[in-house]
Amino acid sequence: MASVRSNVSPQEPGPAWQIAKLFPDQGELGESDYLFLTRRSNRLAEFTDGHIEVLPMPTRAHQRIVRYLIGLLMAVAGNRGEVLFAPLRVRLRPGKFREPDVVFMLTEHADRNGNEFWDGADLVMEVVSEDDPDRDLQTKRDEYAEAGIPEYWIVDPRTKTVTVLKLDRGQYVTHSEARDVGMVRSSLLDGFTADVAAIFAAAGGA
Fold first, then answer.
1. Measuring CA to CA, how many Å separate 118 from each of 10, 104, 115, 124?
2. pTM of the model
């Protein structure tokens, strides 16, 4: 019997554009599209008014600092609230989601702790990323203030500086700051302090 050859040629490897075309274009995505996509991906992604931004994967040093900060915060938070970490979607306003490195919500605001995302937070921490420092230093500073998040910690490994910002009449002011050595303290949680040298030592070697 003669062999039968298919007229269908194998597709060249590459992106599954047919699947991508099932979703709206950048700028036209809705919150439901963002939530659907991030449920099925292990990548960090943030969302602003129809646009999805895929973030670079964090480094080992970055994650070690995050782990250390989580341990400090959990030891003090106790039953005063819940501590979680990225990936976790935090909605700052309709159409705007971020994924802070560390997030904390007071127990009295537990109704804002949704299973798919949190509506805001009471304290957020970001370890400054080398790919785009201004994202954490300025952009997110403005966004978290606009969202009414009472406290924002900026942890910058480049300068070995930790800055604790407190919301004051809609804008952040510096509540506590130290570089290289010294202690910083929270305005939100009594007794929550951190040794700056120990934070950056937690990153370990290169």
1. 44, 10, 8, 12
2. 0.80
